[in-house]
Predict the structure of Guanine deaminase.
Amino acid sequence: HCAYRWSPSLVRRKLGTFVHATYHTAVEILEDGLLGVDTEGKIAFIGSGKEVDRLYYPKAHFVVIDVCSEFFMPGMVDTHIHASQYSYAGTALDMPLLQWLNMYTFPVEACYKDLEFARNVYTHVVKRTLRNGTTTACYFATIHTDASLLLGQIANDFGQRALVGKVCMDTNNFIPHYKETPEESEGETNRFIGELLKKKYPLVRPVVTPRFAPSCSATLLGHLGEIAQNNDLHIQSHISETKEEVSLVKELFPDYDSYTDVYHRHNLLTDKTVMAHGCHLTDGELKLFRETGASIAHCPNSNISLCSGMLDVRRVLNHKVKLGLGTDVAGGYSPSMLDAVRRTLDTSKALTIQDTQYHTLTFEEVFRLATLGGSQALSLDENTGNFEVGKDFDALRVNTDAAGGPIDLINHGEGPKVYVAGKRVVPFVERP
Ligand code: GUN
Ligand code: ZN
């Protein structure tokens, strides 16, 4: 690329291409476009390259870069990923969810008591997801407060936008030492939130994180709902991932109308809530999601790897429930959001094979879910998700001149450049 120098006597060269979703269209392509980023990393202008002349004088501090052979797209938003499970991603997918949690997940998560172990894995997962083009991630850590704070620090240091959750659970029959009492969980959640907010990391926020109803007593769910409400915080958990889990919740919470009702009655369904999976939700439950503004993180790699279910994304969207995509490492074996895009399409196509009348998701719709849809699902779309004036410039810069085209480039080459809030972060290389 080269800096574009304004001169009235020169024939103007074409400027950059911007590909993004808008609130009205799945994909908008702005060719010969111009985007200005201010000194705080916010988008100050987006429009036609023809306007470069008009911009030059009043906004003299703008650097205008000619990027004819490249395009920009918004950074991708991973709405559900377990940072702590990155250490065994790609292994141990030979049993269904509830057994998988007991056999592999809880024993590994218990290791995060050791801060050096945590530092090593968390550094790798933040770097890897950034390289894969994830500019925003919504993380589960473990029950350990100090290690969860460390994850927040590492995301901040590498320049990734992140919601970070200290996991809360007071029920664990299989690994009794990997759990808390409701009082410990409440106290440590308050400490986690207080300490993380004190750091004033510009890109990192805490998220209240009950693991899921089978791991939490009603008392604990109540405490967490109250903490989230009193501090106006994000909330994340899991819901209706497998049929076995749905039956278990019915047994554990017999006085509630549904799995969704368990969270709802503890004030855990708000417009800042994101629930992973939701493969087996009823129409009534989806209605409750719509009414409360809660969203779903669709994690197709995980749903297939653990044989959990096939979420009908079209049905969720028809219910006007917000939905983003997640990798769900390590139930999902890939930390790449491009993988989540491909698996979302695969799942949708598989539903079409079963029912030829099914209206398969388009590539454009899935692109939207991976970017703007994810930022809406996390209620972060005031700051990120697409290229609108006032949002932070979270972007991937893809060079189409590279041999093989952009997709091969993402798979095998050096890869696009990644920006968060206007700043270049680690080089992008996807290793699926
Ligand atoms: N439900 C409760 N905990 C987990 C987890 O760690 N992974 C997945 N996929 N589902 C869960
Ligand atoms: Zn999960």
Summary: Residues 1-10, 404-412 have pLDDT under 50 and may be disordered.
